[in-house]
Amino acid sequence: MMDDLILVGGGGHCRSVIDVIEADGRFRIVGIVDAPEKVGEQICGYSITATDDDLPNLAQTYRYFLVTVGQVKSGAIRTRLFQQIKSLGGILPTLIAPTAYVSRHATIGEGTVIMHRTFVNAGATVGVNNIVNTAALIEHDAVIGDFCHISTGAIVNGTCVVGDGCFVGSNAVLGHGVQLSPGGVIGAGAVVLTNTRPNALYAGNPAVLKRDL
Pairing state of beta strands 173-174 and 155-156? Predict the structure, then answer.
């Protein structure tokens, strides 16, 4: 028997997550939360039925919610929604695409979505409410904090540490053992070989500091 699930956020990332939910088969999507002007619209055959203001009422009826707002650079909106849902007593499940490989020796936090063809190796720890996007690689013993987005095709090598709220762009590579400080943004295709400072943008090969955020 499938459990009812409310999706919070109705953009492009929501479409990708819907595909994973349907492939996973554990949940039945019963509504999507988005802006008032979007109520009544359809996303992949599912209706936008409510707004953020309706979350307290929805939490009285439904147990399971998933934040499906995307994250480009800042994860502030995803963080706020996650914390609001938790404060209302909602449960945010971990979602793993059936085409992904997650080692049984890895740990994945609540509300995190592991997208198609992702690989999470033994000893890796992925925190809460993360997006690990299509074909990303999280190698052995790497640590991904909370509220991060590891983008499509990105590689986080062994023993790396990615601080809370980081964004790692598509096809970026973190060298073995590199530490990203919280709030960092790594540009697409960057090759990061040294530790970074907090709330800063790095890009290039090798990656260099571009500016503070």
Answer: parallel
pLDDT tens digits, one per residue of 24-73 = 999 999 999 999 999 999 999 999 999 999 999 999 999 999 999 988 77
CATH number at residue 54: 3.40.50.20
Q: Is the pTM of this model over 0.85?
A: yes
Considering the domain architecture, whether residues 80 and 119 belong to the same structural domain is answered as no
Rounded Cα distance, 185 and 203, in Å: 9
Q: Of 111, 102, 106, which Cα lies nearest the Cα of 80?
A: 111
The answer to whether the CB of 31 falls within 8 A of the CB of 46 is yes
Are 171 and 188 spatial neighbours (Cβ–Cβ below 8 Å)?
yes
Based on the fold, state whether residues 126 and 200 are members of the same structural domain: yes
User: Cis bond leading into 206, ω under 30°?
Assistant: yes
Burial of 152 (0-12, 13-18, 19+ CB in 10 A): middle
Q: What is the DSSP letter of 86?
A: H
- Measure the CA–CA gap between 109 and 151, rounded to whole angstroms: 17
